[in-house]
Amino acid sequence: MKNRKAKLILPIAALILAAGLSACSSGGEGAGDNTKGAAPAPAEEKLEPVELTVYGGRYVSEEQFMETYGKHLQKKYPHMSFKVYGNMTAANIVTTGMPIDIFFSDPVAYPRDLAQFGLAYDMSALIGEFKFDVSRLHPGPIQVMKDTFNMGVTGLPLSMRNVVLHYNKDLFNKFGVTPPRDGMTWDEVYELARKMTRQENGVKYRGIDFSAHIIDYNQLSLGTVDPKMERASVNTDPWGDLVRNFARFYQITGNEVGTEEAKDVMDWKRFGEQGITAMNGTTFYPPSAVKGLFDMDYAQLPSFPSKPGVGSQSPSTYIGLTSSTKHHKEAFRAIEYLLSAEFQTMLSRSGTMSALQDPAVNAVFGADIPELQGKNAKAALPTKPADPAPLSKHSNSVQANLWTPLLQVFTGAVDPNTGLRNMEESINKKLDELKATMK
């Protein structure tokens, strides 16, 4: 499953980066005023030339950084230049003694890539000095970093992701079925999936498929590892509700997975490349992803009865300073501008998802993408995101131990109760192995 997840996640990451990674914002009041957010340098302050080093990890190459961020930063601050470490691990950089001024990361990769090497840095003092208004950002991603590392603000959200229900409008028109709409429940979408799962003229059509993000960014805010006890937290009633909800879709006759026709459980290809699946729940893909194969549109992710109107968690790509920087103010000045309403409006127009709680920025989402005109693009934006799930430093390390037994449930090899017990046992076994290596 690990390989299958990688195949899915990498195209999504590439699409996000092609659109400009994603969005967030910064200081000042007046959230809708694009002239605010990045405080200009005081007139009396002389800005000396500075080269800032950027660690992009697997998220951004030098070319991508300069195209999406660097050239705009240099237009704003001509005294800045950038050296980007892309496609390198933090271990490589630390071993060679190369400094890092600015990092890009997510909350799972952060402890592996940076915190374990003592590179985490609390930006609280700089936030106060620059009068950076953190309240303009969605609070969830910031709280994740605080809870995980217990050392202040070690990263600010630069972009957000959101799980959306994509649908093939042509198939719904073909079969005369009303397509999904915003505000539906999973029970209603289940009935839609049953209607759309059929065989016609020798073609087997599927009602729905999902990506791994439907579980990873689940609407019930469920984590895999209790960060206090460092034990599996999956064999619970809420996890049972989550697993049973999605397993039932794969038990619809004709919509099964793990079969010769649908070997992979979490698969975009059946929807986006073959055009035989009516709906797909995954993080946002722009219309170009289906290459003109069919007319694709969007609906908000359906909700659970226990969480009416609540969408997926909206994980972020983070940006921040590291403890190895010698250019604290200049690095933060760059971050401040990338999180400004001015810059984020530009990114939002190009189809990125802002971490700003700014209606004016979000209102222009996708405005510069002709393919999105006339689409329900607002469904791609988090309106009522689920609270972030508890995150352990080992959460990323046990992903395969979650998914291997979970897929057995989706394929019908085991019942949900057995699957939950298997998940718990597999995760705890991995945690014991990790603890043994740390002794």
TrEMBL record:
<comment type="similarity">
    <text>Belongs to the bacterial solute-binding protein 1 family.</text>
</comment>
<dbReference type="InterPro" id="IPR006059">
    <property type="entry name" value="SBP"/>
</dbReference>
<dbReference type="GO" id="GO:0030313">
    <property type="term" value="C:cell envelope"/>
</dbReference>
<dbReference type="Pfam" id="PF01547">
    <property type="entry name" value="SBP_bac_1"/>
</dbReference>
<keyword id="KW-0732">Signal</keyword>
<keyword id="KW-0813">Transport</keyword>
<dbReference type="InterPro" id="IPR050490">
    <property type="entry name" value="Bact_solute-bd_prot1"/>
</dbReference>
<feature type="signal peptide">
    <location>
        <begin position="1"/>
        <end position="23"/>
    </location>
</feature>
<protein>
    <submittedName>
        <fullName>Carbohydrate ABC transporter substrate-binding protein</fullName>
    </submittedName>
</protein>
